[in-house]
Amino acid sequence: MTIGVPMLAAVATAVLIGGAAGAAAGVVALVLTAAVLGRLEPADRRRRREALERQAPLVVDLVAACLASGASLERSLDVASAAVGAPAAELLRRATTSLRLGADPRVVWADVARHDPLAPMARAVARSQQTGAPLAALLPRVADQARAAHRARAEARIRTAAVRLTAPLGVAFLPAFVLLGVVPVVASWVGRLL
Asked: What is the pLDDT of residue 63?
């Protein structure tokens, strides 16, 4: 993030208010604007994350089905990456290529685990490779958890949208209510008192 937008907000606040209070308010505006803009997620990164969240349950199901049919892990990852599009396909192809080139599986799966939607699958694969537990038995539960997490995120977004939709209604109707309902009553009381 560049310092341009927070600095512009600080200068505008300082000029509008003026004096020492304006300078103090400008510093506050600088800090608050930098904090808010620092927390915003770029649109392309958000779209990639949301696509990965949608694809994660399908990827885990496909890998589990391929493993249950007797395919190797690398072949299962190939099939899953061919069936789903980007961004999950890119991550799976990179993991498969690294494993085939002899990379340390712990490093490969730690890299995949950096992407939150695929992290449960990556941890299950790493645990299976360390302990020898059958991966085909672990992955259906991981897929169920991924679907439940995706559903919970979608429901949270729906609830947040409902709350956000009420704010414009309040902004539009509150002044009208005050002007049409409260002001005439107060004006009539003041007229009777005077």
From this structure: 93
> At residue 34, what is the residue type?
A
Statement to judge: residues 147 and 99 lie in one domain: yes
Phi-psi bin for 18: left (phi > 0), alpha (psi -120 to 50), beta? left
**CA dist., res. 73 & res. 79, Å (int):** 10
Same domain for 23 and 91, yes or no, is no
Please state the separation of Cα 141 from the chain's center in Å: 23
Count of domains forming the chain:
2
CB 10 within 8 A of CB 32: no
pTM over 0.70: no
> Is residue 162 in a domain?
no
DSSP for 26-77, please give it: HHHHHHHHHHHHHHPPPHHHHHHHHHHHHHHHHHHHHHHHHHHTT--HHHHH
φ, ψ dihedrals at 87, nearest 5°: -95, -15
Q: What is the block-wise mean pLDDT of the chain (194 residues), using blocks of 10 residues?
A: 76 86 86 81 87 91 92 93 92 93 93 93 91 87 89 89 79 82 89 85
- Are 66 and 32 found together in one domain? no
In a domain, 94, yes or no: yes
First to last CA, the chain: 59
- Tell me, yes or no, whether 143 and 68 share the same domain: yes
